[in-house]
Structures are given as structure tokens and as C-alpha cells.
Amino acid sequence: MEMDAANGKHSVGGGSGVGSLLRPPRIFCITLLSIVFWAVIIYFVSTMQGNMASLLFKPSAFSLPSFRFGRDRCVGRYIYMYDLPPRFNADLVRRCRQFSVTDDICKLMVNDGFGAELPPGDSLPEKGAYDTDQYMLELIYHARMKRYECLTADPSTAAAVYVPFYAGFDASLNLWKSNLTDRDALSRDMADWLVRRPEWPSMWGHDHFLVAGRATWDFIRSKDGGWGNPLMTYPAIRNMTVLTIEASPWQGNDFAVPFASHFHPSSDADVLRWQDRMRQQERRSLWGFAGGPRPGNTTVRAQIIEQCGKSSSCAMFGAKSYHSSPDQIMGLLESAEFCVEPCGDSFTRKSTFDAILAGCIPVFFHPISAYTQYTWHLPRDYRSYSVFIPQIDVAKRNVSIEEELRKIPPTKVAQMREEVIRLIPRVMYREPMAKGLVFKDAFDVAVAAVIDRVAKRRRATAEGREYNDSFDGYFSWKYDLLEPGQKDIGPHEFDPYM
Ligand SMILES: *[C@@H]1O[C@H](CO)[C@@H](O)[C@H](O)[C@H]1NC(C)=O
Ligand SMILES: *[C@@H]1O[C@H](CO)[C@@H](O)[C@H](O)[C@H]1NC(C)=O
Ligand SMILES: *[C@@H]1O[C@H](CO)[C@@H](O)[C@H](O)[C@H]1NC(C)=O
Ligand SMILES: *[C@@H]1O[C@H](CO)[C@@H](O)[C@H](O)[C@H]1NC(C)=O
Ligand SMILES: *[C@@H]1O[C@H](CO)[C@@H](O)[C@H](O)[C@H]1NC(C)=O
């Protein structure tokens, strides 16, 4: 119930701040609670059966007009979604043949971005398994949002505004162009289009968000040129919340959301069954690594490949293409207690989320691989679900990964694995058509977090406070890791690695 009799906020007669200073005696609370209880019952009955009851007993006499019983369950959750000109999304999908000369990207875009459905394998779920590519998040979020239960056609009632721009697909098509005018054309067009919308000035874009299915690095080209386009440096986009698969620890308005793994379930029961299966899984290897080498023989990856190769307790799978053998890759992750997730081309990996799906405890070598990312989805206490071995210790000091893992007592390992299995629903993307599900998936968690971020700003503006929730620069990541209620940043255990 919303009302808290103890803090006297709705104290009878008064209604000012007085009631909140004087704690009402206990007997009064009980009386008040029972009055409120009956008011709730009668109000509820009245909304079901017409106005008769309210004639006898006006709920407003108890200052209840704003309580939520029987009210719209979408209140505070409405999303307004732009119907963008097709050049910003659908047309980019139609050009899928141009994404790559070697790979068939069109095939990866089917089923709203989940890719081709996979036949049941030894290590995949019986149904709901897909060959999902790491760059498809724009399609996945858009498909879910089209069926979001609280979409509104009225932007003035929306808690947040979704911009279904396929920024990553634009990048995939155009980042390779050396002519910067051409490379940036569509992202500039997007920013210009947004600021001309009547929906823009109400919060100057601070209520807007978009999902880019690539890393932030692709969208923050510095002024002196180099890689990427400048999408996330445009003033309009800087006012928005941008979700990416890898956020920059030094940028304030981008937030990482989980990569999509292989399982997109349609029911709560499918998820529970999978979690049980991962609990019972026999884990034959102490540790495992799914991935290939990268240039350089003094990297943590080179060390992993060397150490794993020499150990009979480590399993390794280095497929040429991720898409060639999802069943074998999942099989490896499901049969290991720990899965090592080193940096590769960038800090994060889709494999981290494959490992969580497999109930395998992830081992990270850099805080940016997970701990400064995914702060909406993964627990703040990283030791509860993962192991951290600084990559410098492995690459430079020849620390043995296996020895570090063997130091962890079996009861602790069991606790961590249970925590990983508990995280599975939160980091997966469910089938968008599915109805009546109770569990919250990665989409639900992300949308709730965006709405919360916008609501804080809205509240501050209404109270006339100056508000700043977007800290760029060297310590930006520390703001994302603040504990609830904590305002100031200070020294952090990750300082030596950042
Ligand atoms: C880049 O392309 C635009 C047209 O798309 C053209 O006007 C411009 O001259 C080109 N710039 C260079 C440096 O080639
Ligand atoms: C971004 O937001 C600020 C207020 O925080 C506003 O003054 C500015 O005009 C906005 N930028 C754009 C491009 O709308
Ligand atoms: C590492 O690479 C360097 C230069 O490429 C080479 O000289 C050296 O032998 C390599 N070390 C090992 C252990 O492979
Ligand atoms: C690293 O340690 C292993 C044993 O733990 C040893 O066999 C190997 O030679 C060491 N490598 C270097 C470069 O010191
Ligand atoms: C927000 O705070 C940061 C760090 O204190 C500062 O650099 C930035 O200019 C502030 N932005 C605004 C709009 O006040």
C-alpha cells in the first residue's frame, strides 16, 4: 500500500508538514489503517460497480484521489515511440547485402534480429534457441517495443520517448567510408530531425532514448578524425540516454545492456526448466575458454591459450566463426565451472552472456569487461557472481589462472554458480510475441532503468533544482558505481586498472 500511516503524510486535518514531525500514537495508526482499509475496499467496489458507493462514502474525504488501486497499471511506464522515416531503420535492413562481402548478414537479421531458429542440440534449449548475432540489438529492442504493453500515442503522457534509429546498422554500412561527410550523413540527419520534432523541447531530449547495437567507441569520433562517427557527440544525442553493447567508462549518457545470447524463451516455465538444467549440469572442466587468439603474444589471451592448452582441467574451443557451432560452444560453457572472458577486439564479449546462460561463473581480467558496464543488470557486488584476476597479473607476472581458481572453496563456488543461474532471466531477451510472462528480461530491466533516469530529472526540474546526471571524463564510471544515496565519488578499488 502506498500510504505510510507512521509518517503521517496524510494525517487527518492538517495535511501540512506538521503531521510528519509528530509520530501519531500506535492506537491512532491502527484506527487510521482500518479506516484506510475500508476506504480502499469501498473505493475498489465503487470503481467496479458504478458510483453508488462513492455517494455513501466519498474516498476523497480521506485524501485518496491519487492512490493507485484499480488504476491504470501503465501509469509512470508509458513509452512514446517515434514512427521514423524508413531511411533511419527499415531501409538499412533492406540493404543487408551490403554489410559484408563474406558473410550473409541478411540471414542474421531474420526473426526480429534473433537470427535463424536452431534445431534442438545437446547443449541448446529444446525450443527458443536461435543463432543470434552480437550486433542485432536494434532489431531486438524495436520488435519488443512494438509489443510493449504500455505504448502511448500521446507523447505528453509518456514517461520516456523511444527513437528506433538503427545507429549500429548505419555504422556497419558507413564507418568504412573515408569521406567524413558521407560517413556521418545519416547520424547528422537523425540529430537534425529530432530537434525539429514538437516532442523535443518539452525536455530537450532528456526523456529520449535510443539503442545502438554496437560499442560506444563507434559513435564518439574525436575532432581530429579517426575511427567512428560523431553521433554521440552531437548536442541533441548527448541530452538523450543511449544504450549500447559496450559503454565507455568515460562518457556519462551511455549505458551498456546485455548482448543477446542464444535462448529467447516464450514462457516462465521454459526459463525455470533451463535454470534447473544448468543447476544439474555435470561440470567436467574446472575452466573453459571459447574464443580465438588475437595478435600479440604478451596479452592475457595468449596466456589463456597457453595455460589452458597445458592443463587437463581446461577446455578450449576456437571456432573460426561464431555462427558455425553454437551448440558446441554452449556445450563447452555448460561443462565448465569457470569461463574466462578476456578482452578481445574491445573490452566486452557476447560470450560473457553465453557463459551466464550456461550457468558458468565468468572470470574477468579487466573491470571494463563487465563491472563498469551493465550496472543495471549485474549485481554491484561482482564477487557474488564472478572472479576478477587482473590481466596485468596474468600477462606480466605469469599468474596461473588455474591456481587462482583452485583457491576458491567449493561452497563459495556453489554460491556463485547459483547467483549466475539466478541472473539468467535478467540478461536474456524473451520472445516478443509471448504473453503473460512474469519474469523480467534484459529489455524490461533496461526500460525500467531509462524511465527511472528520466523521472529523476523530471522531478528535479519540477522542484526547480539544477540537475546533472551525465558526467563525462576520467571519473565518469565512478558515478555509475555509486551506492544508492551516495553522492560523492572517491577512491575506488578499480583505480589501478582504469
Ligand atoms: C565528400 O562527399 C561529398 C558528397 O557526398 C562531396 O561534396 C565532398 O566533396 C567529398 N569530400 C571529399 C574530401 O572528397
Ligand atoms: C540539451 O539540454 C539542455 C538543458 O539541459 C538545453 O539547454 C539544450 O538546448 C539541449 N540541447 C538541444 C540540442 O536540445
Ligand atoms: C613473442 O613474439 C616475439 C616477437 O614477435 C618473438 O620474438 C617471441 O619469440 C615470441 N615469444 C613466444 C613465447 O612465442
Ligand atoms: C610461467 O609459469 C609457468 C609455471 O607456472 C612456467 O612453466 C612458465 O615457464 C612461466 N613462464 C614465464 C614466461 O615465466
Ligand atoms: C555536470 O557535472 C560535470 C562534472 O562536475 C561537469 O563537468 C559538467 O559541466 C556538468 N554539466 C552541466 C550541464 O552542468
TrEMBL record:
The keyword DNA-binding does not apply. It holds the Pfam family Exostosin_GT47. GO terms for molecular function: glycosyltransferase activity. InterPro entries: Exostosin (IPR004263), Exostosin_GT47 (IPR040911). Keywords: Glycosyltransferase, Golgi apparatus, Membrane, Signal-anchor, Transferase, Transmembrane, Transmembrane helix. One of its GO terms (cellular component) is Golgi membrane. Coiled coil: none annotated. Signal peptide: none annotated. It is a single-pass type II membrane protein. The chain crosses the membrane at residues 27-45. It is found in: Golgi apparatus membrane. This is Exostosin GT47 domain-containing protein. It comes from Lolium multiflorum (Italian ryegrass).
